[in-house]
Amino acid sequence: MYNQQEFARAAQALCDYGRILYSRGWSPATSSNYSVRLNDHCCALTSSGKHKGELTPADILAVDWQGQALSAGKPSAETLLHTQLYQRDEQIGAVLHTHSPVAVVLSQIWPQDSLSLTGWELQKAFAGETTHEDTVTFPLFANDQNIDRLSALVESHMQAHGQGHAYLIRGHGIYTWGKDLAECFRHLEALENLLGYQLELLKLGK
């Protein structure tokens, strides 16, 4: 159902990025999950409960769009939040879900259901964004242990408001995506810094 060599390359890449994300404090302990599209039917995904700074290829499994394991390993409870994105847009090649302190704190205290940013040069790190004068908006969803319901809510929101570049789950973390892991990581790095700017502004009473 998937090419074993492509799976092996995806597994190693996810391990490599896991160490980077852990070193930055964005994926503490066993939190977070990452994935890479393998084809139009399945993706490579980090197994549940694995320390993200110590991933090995054995900690990566393949899952189909229904979240069913196609290889050894236990799918994350949040698998359907990955597969929802792959099913809606064939151009999405990677998804990163992280739990940085900045994202967790800001998403918990932000009063609105979306966070809009304008005027920051770093906005141009997102694919398709060409000027700091535009506005980028990131929805915030309430944390929900019912992932079927949450993934359906995310899809409904995207149908109504557009796909965007990322979203936040309150008190939980970030989901972001890209055409491949490199673009996805660039989006995440940009968003982490933009959220940091916003949190600093709040501290200054702005």
From TrEMBL:
It catalyses: 5-(methylsulfanyl)-D-ribulose 1-phosphate = 5-methylsulfanyl-2,3-dioxopentyl phosphate + H2O. Binds 1 zinc ion per subunit. Its cofactor is Zn(2+). It holds the Pfam family Aldolase_II. InterPro entries: Aldolase_class_II_sugar_metab, Aldolase_II/adducin_N, Aldolase_II/adducin_N_sf, MethylthioRu-1-P_deHdtase_MtnB. SMART domains: Aldolase_II. It is an enzyme of class 4 (lyase). Residues 12-199 form the Class II aldolase/adducin N-terminal domain. Keywords: Amino-acid biosynthesis, Lyase, Metal-binding, Methionine biosynthesis, Zinc. Belongs to the aldolase class II family. MtnB subfamily. This is Methylthioribulose-1-phosphate dehydratase. It comes from Thalassolituus marinus. The lineage of its organism: Bacteria, Pseudomonadati, Pseudomonadota, Gammaproteobacteria, Oceanospirillales.
